[in-house]
Amino acid sequence: CGRSGPDRSCSDDGVIAVTDAAGALQYYSTYLGGNFDEWAGGVVATASGDAIVTGYTDSSSSLPFPTTPGVVQPGKNVKEDGYVTRIGTKSTTPPPPPA
Question: Is 0.70 topped by the overall pTM?
Fold first, then answer.
């Protein structure tokens, strides 16, 4: 276990990185997770360079999966919950074109 994550719990979490086609130049990256496991099932880039990520979370209310105000369900139900999240960038480096 690499002890990743904000609570160093060895849970599975996501890292989203947007790079050039060769993987040599990183435009931006971010950590995605709460206090338990998160799994990313798919990632797609938008024309503006944002990342749309789908998956599911098992994080609890003590350190939940990150949400924004007005979401349909801000916390986990009983078991794992699915998510669709959009990760944007305000970077001064232009994002790569979508694949």
Answer: no
Count of all residues that appear for the chain in the document: 99
Q: Which of 32, 73, 82, 38 shows the shortest CA–CA distance to 59?
A: 38
Round to the nearest angstrom and report the end-to-end CA distance of the chain.
Answer: 33
* Number of Cα atoms under 13 Å in the Cβ half of residue 9: 13
Angle, alpha carbons 35-38-40 (nearest 5°):
155
Going from N- to C-terminal start, the domains of the chain cover 14-87
Which tens digits make up the pLDDT trace of 21-61? 788 887 777 777 777 777 888 888 888 878 888 888 877 66
DSSP state, residue 78: S
Residues 19 and 95: their CA atoms lie apart, in Å, by: 8
